[in-house]
Amino acid sequence: MTTLKIGVAGVGRIGKIHLENILQHFPNIEIALVADPSEEAEKYVLGKNLNFSNDYNNIIKNPDIEAVIICSPTDTHANFVERAAQSGKHIFCEKPLDLSLQTVVKTLDIVKKSGVKLMLGFNRRFDPNFLKIKSMVDSGKIGDPQILKITSRDPGPPPISYIKVSGGLFMDMAIHDFDMARYIMNKEVVEVYSRGAVLVDPAIGDAGDIDTALTTLTFEDGTMANIDNSRKAVYGYDQRLEVFGSKGMVKADNNFPDNHQYFSADGIHGSLPLNFFLERYTTSYLNELEAFFKSVQNGEDLPVSGKDGLEAMKIALAALKSVMEKRPVWIKDLR
Amino acid sequence: MTTLKIGVAGVGRIGKIHLENILQHFPNIEIALVADPSEEAEKYVLGKNLNFSNDYNNIIKNPDIEAVIICSPTDTHANFVERAAQSGKHIFCEKPLDLSLQTVVKTLDIVKKSGVKLMLGFNRRFDPNFLKIKSMVDSGKIGDPQILKITSRDPGPPPISYIKVSGGLFMDMAIHDFDMARYIMNKEVVEVYSRGAVLVDPAIGDAGDIDTALTTLTFEDGTMANIDNSRKAVYGYDQRLEVFGSKGMVKADNNFPDNHQYFSADGIHGSLPLNFFLERYTTSYLNELEAFFKSVQNGEDLPVSGKDGLEAMKIALAALKSVMEKRPVWIKDLR
Amino acid sequence: MTTLKIGVAGVGRIGKIHLENILQHFPNIEIALVADPSEEAEKYVLGKNLNFSNDYNNIIKNPDIEAVIICSPTDTHANFVERAAQSGKHIFCEKPLDLSLQTVVKTLDIVKKSGVKLMLGFNRRFDPNFLKIKSMVDSGKIGDPQILKITSRDPGPPPISYIKVSGGLFMDMAIHDFDMARYIMNKEVVEVYSRGAVLVDPAIGDAGDIDTALTTLTFEDGTMANIDNSRKAVYGYDQRLEVFGSKGMVKADNNFPDNHQYFSADGIHGSLPLNFFLERYTTSYLNELEAFFKSVQNGEDLPVSGKDGLEAMKIALAALKSVMEKRPVWIKDLR
Amino acid sequence: MTTLKIGVAGVGRIGKIHLENILQHFPNIEIALVADPSEEAEKYVLGKNLNFSNDYNNIIKNPDIEAVIICSPTDTHANFVERAAQSGKHIFCEKPLDLSLQTVVKTLDIVKKSGVKLMLGFNRRFDPNFLKIKSMVDSGKIGDPQILKITSRDPGPPPISYIKVSGGLFMDMAIHDFDMARYIMNKEVVEVYSRGAVLVDPAIGDAGDIDTALTTLTFEDGTMANIDNSRKAVYGYDQRLEVFGSKGMVKADNNFPDNHQYFSADGIHGSLPLNFFLERYTTSYLNELEAFFKSVQNGEDLPVSGKDGLEAMKIALAALKSVMEKRPVWIKDLR
Fold first, then answer.
1. Using one digit for the tens of pLDDT, what is the confidence trace for B23-75?
2. Would you place residue C238 in the very low, low, confident or very high pLDDT band (cuts 50, 70, 90)?
3. C-alpha distance from residue A6 to each of A40, A92, A167 (Å)
4. Would an 8 Å CB–CB cutoff place B264 in contact with chain C?
5. Pairing relationship of beta strands D29-35 and A4-9 according to DSSP bridges
6. Range(s) for CATH 3.40.50.720 in chain D?
7. How far apart are CA D271 and CA D256, in angstroms?
8. Percentage, residues of chain C above pLDDT 90
9. Among C153, C260, C263, which would you mutate to test the A interface (most chain A Cβ atoms within 10 Å of its Cβ)?
10. Among residues C196, C273, C205, which one has the least CA distance to residue C233?
């Protein structure tokens, strides 16, 4: 297999994950340039003996780079994607493409015209548990899926400074669950009803966001999904999923650091779930890159498209509108 | 302890459960008369060497009877309760009191004036699992409860003939879950949003009912509950509950006939949940009668009041209205 | 069905279990007489409106009594069984028949000649979990059973006074496991190797007994069983079983009072197993009596025979001898 | 940290595991030379751009190499270890050192005199589950450990050709469990009783080995361990451990590829355990190398010593002798 030359934009928390995965697991991927404005990133990247620039633009300008991995802040995504597309570079971009629906639509249009491949970082699709659920649903094991239930709770809220630029709970956090709902059910959502509340920290409310939400999705055929989100589960990262259908039910529990059970005089005790998304979704981050590289190098289909990003975003916007207007919102009525 | 004389009205499926429980477990309860219009019931009751009448009225007319257990059809409940109350007899009545909100309000008013005790048969409150959850919530183990999730699925739909007179999925089936939500959360519901569908059997739709529903309850303080109902879970009776709070989470799984695990070359296998409410809730039926008799005999507080029946009913009516009008419905706006 | 007249000898802890079960569940069984020398028993039995005598002999002397339930102390069993057999009364006797192998052999001989039915109280054979395991083994689900593992630990040791007359850990406690091993494997044991220790309470050692044991049973075909026993599991009554075979493995876990799971910041927690044999084996006590009465009334085969008692006892004796002589002991070399 | 130069002898199945782990996870370890007589190995190693030789001796002869990883066949271990020790190279060696007790004793003596570090590849000590159990036992969570139970079953037997040179079930397979027993209990074994059988494949018996075994270990203080081994569990690799003590019990279950549960009309189903030691013990292989390198580079204590290898081997020899002579064998009587 011929080597693929890539550029990596942004080496914050998630950028480092991707960088390490590429170095360790993809011998045919050559990291031609890493760009990030921060000094901390510079030191880190140079320690890896990789080419580094403080200017994202240098990735675009490098004609040898065939694909880009975009892990820079959200507000740089759309512009970077457009320019990468116009330069003929394939694109893996962390979600979301942008917080504005218009911008996303416009950007996807540019990508489409350019002919490059664009994959959004909905990494949870590549988690072994959810992949198993997906394959069982697709194989007909549960018959027609009727009710989907997703539990998605973070171990603790991010800093208020992050909350303020995050796009809010639905766009920042629940968007993964909205994508998962479409992915598992293989159907489009037509209506969204969400109830939100500030139960974890009043400062989150002061920042204009909510920290707890319960969402009902209705699909085109009348089947339904329920998603509950909280910014703070004191017992750790809680990521569960259950699909109920005409022929059965399948569900996935959390992942744990070990499987011991301790029996003492006051009860039976076990370990808490893996506490953070970097630990829980280690495998999924690796798998999603593999899928992207396979698609670019071998011409295989992309497992996550730009449209997937757009549809998940619409659900997030409808959920927010539903909370604000205290009524169910139809996807088709957005904008 | 002095003996309490009671009458039992109706010995169908649930009436038999109560009758057997009384005979086996309550030596201080004397069944003075059992009434039921059916011949099958007559044969059954006489086989137990108990006094029998084909006319429910004879229970009311018997001045020795101090308390009644009402297991007759729903459309007889309100009238029977009123007359029993007016005769000074304490009342245990299967839910619902009536399908009409006005009738229920009027009946509860009569009961209140009469001074007799009235307990509704919300047996699930007495299930060991849910009692455990309740005690953990009440003791503060999970901090402030924020999200309640109830799964309540039947192993199969009742006959269409029953569906037609049942009051519908919300009034007949989900009403137990609505009561459970108030019981666990210790708060009143202010808003209800339900999505319903006919996914199990079109004949249920033809009968004017739904067979699948997803309901969001919002409580007075902004906390929330989600309830999913299906008339048909092919793997059996699915009754689970989970409460998430500021300091932890507690959940209850189904009950099983045994706890074996079988490991074969094609997977790990276990028994399905207990398949029907009579098996799953055996203990709760016994416990609820014990609570009723204790209240009547020892003057202890009733654990389920007429108001509990009324509030659960309001939620059911709001859920139905929500499905019909495709919008959230406020409890205070009912009628 | 015609009524069977029985006598119950001994109403200590286990006698009361049987008495209550008979009164509540077997309408065709008439308790003609209960005998027990203690005053406490007298008060208890008279409170049930049953005929009572302080003399066991009066059961034997009553010609109307067709069957006896023997729950009196172990040292009365053999003599009572012999006389009941000679009086033509069918016998249900708590284990063990006697602590002396010779006496047991002699007693069984007398029973055999008399033609009455004798069932030993190996109640665990009737536990729903072990019945499930048994049926799966018998149906070939695990292929040829190769290794059996039994965990059998009490929540706490009995009083030293009881230990002294109990016959020791193997005869008093492990004998249930030895019977279970034969029952599940459907084979005879040929060799026993046990290691015993005093790890719980030195007073048990002073009383000439052990409180912890690990036993290897070898069956006639070379397959094996392992049993571990302790007089004190601080987390409650621990009764588990696992059978490994050529086509799979099946195991049974403990029973629990509820199935809640509590997730707090310091772990996941669940309830301890049911704490005592009366709670854990409630159903098995009922089932074994049903089997006995069916056999007597309908002529069905007895599910536990006198020979079963004898064989389990031989294993217990071999285990004790193995501990004493620090070597494996062959069953055929006993006596 | 300064770079450590190592040589790797043997790149069969386990050698490749170590090689990949070193390349991916230990940037400060330089693989100076890989040696293996096979052509397949040559191609594999050259593909990694590493120095290769067909002659193990070239590792010893290279004065720059500071440490060796020995993954060559068992019959080369002792000689290689001796020569590496005499050349002043630290040694990580796959178990066993040799099949002869005398050779092992002699080799350890040479190593001791040389002053180099020698670590045996008892990788299971580094498995996250067993590490958790170990830490809980060491911290006193279960009080005094009294009974240890290990289940260790392979998914299928190795080829007969391998069986013939393996040293037998105890030396090849159960030796890991014998080491684990000493590791968890922190005590020396004084007596061994094993029962062995050929239940999986008669060809294994023909090759002079057994395929199924049940072993009782007695420790110096009278506490006990039970180990059951089978060469074939049709449901996959079964590696469980349970320690029972005066204050509680702790156990570890198997690892699974996912944690889904599927509920269909005929039962509840889950995935089988990870099917092979390479998958189950992935993390432990990485952790053991890390421990070795830390010890060599930072002067930390070795977590597994040559004596650990010797003691586990003695238990294996005693187990074999016990099966042959049908009696318990004391470790002190070996030789």
1. 988 989 999 999 999 999 999 999 999 999 999 999 999 999 999 999 999 99
2. very high
3. 21, 10, 29
4. yes
5. unpaired
6. 4-116
7. 7
8. 93
9. C263
10. C273
- Give the residues across from A244 on adjacent strands: A147, A249
Q: Is A329 on the interface with B (CB under 8 A)?
A: no
pLDDT, tens only, D8-56: 999 999 999 999 999 988 989 999 999 999 999 999 999 999 999 999 9
What three-state secondary structure class fits B258? Answer: coil
> Is D250 within 8 Å of chain A by CB?
yes
pLDDT band at D83 (very low <50, low <70, confident <90, very high): very high
Strand order of the β-sheet with B4-9 is B52-53, B29-35, B4-9, B67-70, B90-93, B118-120
Using alpha carbons, select from A312, A311, A313, A309 the residue that is nearest to residue A119: A309
> Looking at beta carbons, which residues of chain A come within 8 Å of D24?
24-25
Candidates D21, D137, D238, D262: best to mutate against A (most CBs of A within 10 A) is: D262
pLDDT per residue as tens digits for the range A264-282: 999 999 999 998 888 889 9
**C134: nearest CA partner in chain B:** B260
Return the pLDDT at D24.
Answer: 86
In chain B, DSSP finds a helix count (H) and a strand count (E) of 13, 15
The residue behind tokens 């992207």 is: A292
* Confidence at residue C216, expressed as pLDDT on a 0 to 100 scale: 98
Tokens of A266: 């006051």
Supply B5's token pair. 């004389």
Checking if the pLDDT of B272 tops 90, the result is: yes
Pair of tokens at residue C64 = 């109307």
Q: Cα(A210)–Cα(A170) distance, rounded to whole angstroms?
A: 9
Q: Which of C114, C115, C70 is nearest to C96 (CA)?
A: C70
Q: Which CATH number among 3.40.50.880, 3.40.50.720, 3.40.50.10490, 3.40.640.10 corresponds to the domain B4-116?
A: 3.40.50.720
Nearest to C195 among D214, D216, D230 (CB): D216
Rounded-to-integer distance, Cα A290 and Cα D16, Å:
22
Task: Tell me the pLDDT of chain D averaged across its residues.
Answer: 95
**The CATH fold of domain B125-280+312-333:** Dihydrodipicolinate Reductase; domain 2 (3.30.360)
Task: Find the length of chain D.
Answer: 335
Give the Å distances, CA to CA, from D130 to B264, C233, D21, D255, D278: 25, 22, 21, 12, 16
What is the sign, positive or negative, of the torsion defined by CA atoms of D116, D121, D125, D127?
positive
Instruction: State the Cα–Cα distance between residues B217 and B236, nearest whole angstrom.
Output: 26
Give how far the C-alpha of residue C57 lies from the chain's centroid of Cα atoms, to the nearest Å.
25
CA distance readout (Å), C118 to C97, C305, C308, D135: 11, 6, 11, 52
Q: What's the rounded Cα separation, in Å, for the pair B83 and B77?
A: 10
- What's the Cα-to-Cα distance from D203 to each of C112, C222, D157, D198, rounded to whole Å? 47, 17, 11, 9
Give CA separation, D298 vs D3, D5, D85, D288, in Å.
Answer: 12, 15, 19, 15
Q: Count of CB atoms within 10 A of residue D24's CB? A: 13
> How far apart are alpha carbons A11 and A30 in whole angstroms?
16
C275 or A123: which leads in pLDDT: A123
Please provide the average confidence, as pLDDT, over all residues in chain A. Answer: 95
- Give me the pLDDT at residue D335, please: 74
D262 and A271: CB-CB below 8 Å? Answer: no
Residue range(s) of every CATH 3.30.360.10 domain in chain C: 125-280+312-333
Per-residue pLDDT averaged across D296-324, rounded?
Answer: 95
So what's the pLDDT on residue A24?
86
Quote the pLDDT of residue B265: 95
Residues composing chain B: 335
**Of A79, A168, A74, residue with least CA distance to A121:** A74
